Amino acid sequence: CLRGILALLTNCVPTENWIHIINRALVNKNDDDAQQANPFNNDLFSLIIVRLLGSNIFRDTAIRSDSNDITSLVDVALVFLNKWCDASRDLNDDDDENNNDSLSSDEPNQIINFLRSSTLLGGKLGTAQIIIPYIDAKYDHVRLMAVSTLSKIMNFQDFQDLQKKKANIAEDIVKFIFEFIDRAFVQGNLKYEGISFERLLCYLLRLLDHDFVKKQTLPYIPKIVTYAEERHLNALKILRKISSSQDMKQDLRNNFELNEFLTTKASCLFASDPMMKKIIEQIRQNLLPGRQAFISYCHRDKRQCDEFVKTLEQANLFTNVWVDRSYMKDDMAYTITSAIRQSKVVFVLLSNAYCTSDFCRREWQFAISEKIKVCPVSVQEDFQRDAFDWVVFNIGYSPFYKIYKNDELQRLIKNLRSDKHEQSQSINKTTTDSAET
């Protein structure tokens, strides 16, 4: 009976019609209209996870069996959860500039946040910990649905907790996903267990938000390149996400298949596809050995930001100047933190609007925590840094520049040139010393 109900809910309830209403209700607990319109039942989801998927009897039986007759209840429960986790857009994300779908990555899927919540299980095991054992199931579809759901809800802490029990969990998950990707790739309809090849790539793409998972993809780079050459968008996105890892850059530059793809094949393959062409350029940019600058600014100061970027580009001090309007893709927080980590300098464009933005403040704090050089630059003539105690604290004894004063702007450029020269000399000296040794 329960299996039938879950199957009906999975197949007959259009998530795209309800997700906006559910999101609104889960965010606004005191909104009576939103609560009245909300079809989402917290207790039902909790029961599915705790009583069904969390049951030792159901779990052990499902993991040992390779028959759908035995695993069907667990399977349909995972399919049901997976459907709602997939309610937010990922195959048609914000890389598609022509997509006018009202559901965008700017609207977080609150069901995912609900499933991640530890309060769901009364402070005991979280949802991810309950679902993780199912990746060892004998029946492939159960394993796939478990990995699909986990790719949406697992966070860094879940991975850390799991690694204490299974040290090679990241390697095992990547290997497992590629087994099914390979099986789907050779099928005429590009599907395995009813799941499309592109969707399987998407499962991997989601997990690559974690740097330690990226490292496990190195042995599979030639395969990913092959998929990209077949014009699979998510394969390109995977390469882009992997290429953002500082620790993997040298290995990726040395990879023959990837190097050949980027230097001789990609431009011809994607000449008529603006989106794929843009992703290729971003991959190339990520792999450049040069200097990147990150611009942290408030969007109200867009004009001043553009003027400052133009000045930096004319000075030719950096191989790339990172501004969100040009590079923001996929997960916003991940993209920004990755860009900051790859930068030699973070320019903080200070104004009253900047200092009242929590998001801008987090960018600055993250740069400090990563020990990235920060240059505070005032873009507002009447800006008073003393008005914000945390700004005074962050600036400390750092040089402070004012973009609207040409002599100070030139002083900034001069100091940056000096820093660049000193770093080049330091690198050359280190190289010489190593050679002599």
Keywords:
437 residues; Rossmann fold; 5-stranded parallel β-sheet; 2 domains; globular; two-stranded antiparallel sheet; Leucine-rich Repeat Variant
- Broad CATH class of the largest domain: Mainly Alpha
Query: How is the biggest beta sheet arranged?
Result: 5 strands, parallel
Name the poorly predicted regions: 90-94, 96-105, 424-437
Kindly report how far apart the N and C termini lie: 75 Å
The side-by-side strand order for the widest beta sheet comes to 4-3-5-6-7
Average pLDDT for all residues? 82
Please tally the β strands and state the result: 7
Total individual domains:
2
Q: If you consult CATH, what is the topology of the largest domain?
A: Leucine-rich Repeat Variant
Structural class: mainly alpha
What count of helical segments does DSSP give?
25
Give an overview in words:
The chain is mainly alpha-helical and 437 residues long. It folds into 2 domains: 2-287, Leucine-rich Repeat Variant; 292-433, Rossmann fold (3-Layer(aba) Sandwich). Helix content is 62%, strand content 6%. It is built from 25 helices and 7 strands. The chain has helices at residues 2-12, 15-27, 32-37, 42-53, 56-64, 68-85, 110-116, 127-131, 140-153, 156-165, 169-185, 197-207, 211-214, 221-229, 233-243, 249-253, 256-269, 274-287, 302-315, 324-327, 332-341, 352-355, 358-369, 389-395, 406-436, and strands at residues 191-192, 195-196, 292-296, 320-322, 345-350, 373-378, 401-402. α24 (389-395) links the parallel β6 (373-378) and β7. The radius of gyration is 25 Å and the shape is globular. The chain starts with a helix and ends with a helix.
